[in-house]
Q: What sequence folds into this?
């Protein structure tokens, strides 16, 4: 499962495992899919996030890349 690193205002850093990251403009939501439904793992106010990274695996090891949340279209429901 992908690992994301969230850097927040004030220097706080959070690592989270999630299948995807989405945003409604106000919040950045990390989600995983369980039995065909998306469930929220973590939600962070967008104004608190200064940088978002995703870890990718390569032959020589892994590295962090800049991640961008997918915009949510329509009603977005967390279960």
A:
């Amino acid at each position: 499962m992908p690992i994301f690193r969230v850097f927040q205002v004030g220097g706080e850093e959070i690592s989270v495992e999630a299948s995807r990251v989405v945003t409604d403009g106000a919040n950045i939501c990390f989600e995983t899919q369980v039995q065909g439904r998306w469930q929220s793992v973590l939600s962070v106010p967008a104004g608190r996030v200064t940088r978002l990274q995703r870890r990718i695996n390569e032959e020589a090891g892994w590295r962090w890349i800049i991640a961008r949340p997918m915009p949510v279209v329509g009603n977005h429901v967390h279960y």
